[in-house]
Amino acid sequence: MRIVFAGTPEFAATALDALIKAGHQIDLVLTQPDRPAGRGMKLQPSAVKKLAVANGIPVEQPVSLRIDGKNGEEAQRVHDRIQAISPDVMVVVAYGLILPKAFLDIPGKGCLNIHASLLPRWRGAAPIQRAIEAGDDESGVAIMQMEEGLDTGPVLMMASTPITEKDTTAVLHDRLAEMGGELIVRALQAIADGTATYTPQNEGKAVYARKLHRDEAALDFTLSAKENAARIRAFNPFPGCTAEYGDMILKIWDARAEDADTSQPAGKILSVDGSGVVVACGQGALRILTLQKPGAKRLPVSEFIKGFSFDGGQLK
Prior knowledge:
Layout: E1 2-7, H1 10-21, E2 25-30, E3 35-37, E4 42-44, H2 47-54, E5 59-60, H3 72-85, E6 89-93, H4 101-104, E7 111-115, E8 123-124, H5 127-133, E9 138-145, E10 155-162, H6 169-193, E11 208-209, H7 225-234, E12 241-245, E13 248-258, E14 269-273, E15 276-280, E16 285-292, E17 298-300, H8 301-304
Parallel strand pairs: 1-2, 1-6, 2-5, 6-7, 8-11
Antiparallel strand pairs: 3-4, 7-9, 9-10, 12-13, 13-16, 14-15, 15-16, 16-17
Helix pairs in contact: 1-2, 1-6, 5-7
């Protein structure tokens, strides 16, 4: 089938790579404009653009797709180009721009979105992080027929994977990206074979995965150790969880929840050795395993405490 692909980060690039390797004809790629990044803040192409250029696929990078908006002329030009291609399907993965109805209506067999959750749970911007933060037992990938609502369309295929107590967002992201690439290839085959079936989502079970913000980074030791450990994994690599010790803000990258006497005040440091910094929580204790001082490298506790002294006290 003729495909137009829209996506931006590594998660999307994994899906594009799977489609290329499966032999699909990608006639055009849409991706976000180049952004400044790195030490020199030079303009850098997205992961999807790099892959498309390496494979000789034409690329468009509109600022917006709103034909009636500020950049309407550019949006109209991209719309007309896609219409001229007359794609069978548009595949959309973490693109970052809203596709208006005028674009959704172009492909003959519709627009498919690869979403990193078991829809209708965790619609929205941060499904991987929110699933881990909430302590979900599993996550997954859904192939959804796009419509104007936010992740509300009927689901063509889904695949699930357990969330383990060691899964950070970075680890689960990579696993789901691979699953998404495999699943979109299967979904397109089902459409080509005429065997595709779409299941409407149960609106009563919909949960929204709001975007992450830096002001969520601070740990709350009045919560249970299990909740804090989940948040640390969910916010790794971004924004990274923090805790105050005296006048210093430490980043905490890895920790485990443990059963412990909770009669001590929340945040009280119970013990410090090479196996971890153990901190009292509202329920249980948090064994902190990897820390980072401002401007320094992240280190395992065994290395961190060689150059840093926890003289009792509390984290907050």
